[in-house]
Amino acid sequence: MNTIRIIVEMDRDMAKSSAERVADYRARKKAEGMVSMTLVVPTADVALFNQFAAQRREKLREGKHPADTPRQQWLSMLSAMTPASAPPAAPRRKRNALGAPVTRAQTLFVSMLKHIIDLGWPAGLPLGSEQELMKVHGASRAALRGAIRLLEHHSIVRMQRGIGGGLIVAQPDLSATMQAVSVYLEYAGIAPRDILATRRTLELAALDLVIERLDREGEHRLWELVAAEAQLDGRAGADELLRFHFLLAELSGDPALRLFNGIVLQLADAHSTFHRRSRPDRDRVVARIKEYHREIARAIIARDRKQARGQIAEYIAGIRTWLE
Question: Does domain 104-169 have CATH number 1.10.3470.10?
Answer without folding.
Answer: no
